[in-house]
Amino acid sequence: MGEQKASADSRRQFLKTATAAIGAAIAAGFAFPAVVYLIGPVLKRQEAETWIPLGPTNKVEPGTPTLFRVTVERQTGWITATEELSVYVLTENGREYSAMSNICTHLGCRVRWIDGQQEFFCPCHNGVFDKQGSVVSGPPPRPLDQYPTKVEDGQIFILGGTDRG
């Protein structure tokens, strides 16, 4: 009788252990994908450089800033946002290009190029910038933001990192 009780106890212990192991495996099967979903985008390495295509170089008339508008998709963690980016591109010689934001550095209003006066004007508080984006007058505290540029196969690209707004 003592042997039967010991055998029943060991069987019972085996079933408890097997049930706990199966339950742990099922829990891990659900938990692992959930954890990967939640923290995966945070751990994913962001590209160090993101070159954004603006358009063809032949659209830019030498000596006159040309406005380009592009739609950019940015991902922060697992949130994806689409935004429109507006950039003025300038060339004096058709070989070297500079790109600057059309956002005033004072309060974030949009600047526009006034061809007759050869300057950028911000209508919010009368901020004025020269052709290269430097402050001429008004309240802006600094020049227009500049973007690094490159030209490949007749297309203009700007560098738009993940932290650039």
Biggest sheet architecture: 4 strands, antiparallel
Give me the CATH fold name of the largest domain.
Answer: Rieske Iron-sulfur Protein
SS element count, helices: 1
Mean pLDDT score: 85
The CATH class of the largest domain: Mainly Beta
Sheet/helix structural class: alpha+beta
What percentage of the residues does DSSP assign to strands (E)? Answer: 35-45%
Strand order of the largest sheet: 2-3-4-9
Element order: H for helix, E for strand: HEEEEEEEEEEE
Shape: rod-shaped
The low-confidence parts are none
CATH superfamily of the largest domain: Rieske [2Fe-2S] iron-sulphur domain
- How far from one another are the termini? 80 Å
Oligomer: single chain
Q: So, CATH architecture of the largest domain?
A: 3-layer Sandwich
Could you tell me the radius of gyration in angstroms?
30 Å
Number of strands: 11
Q: Please give the domain count.
A: 2
> Helical proportion?
25-40%
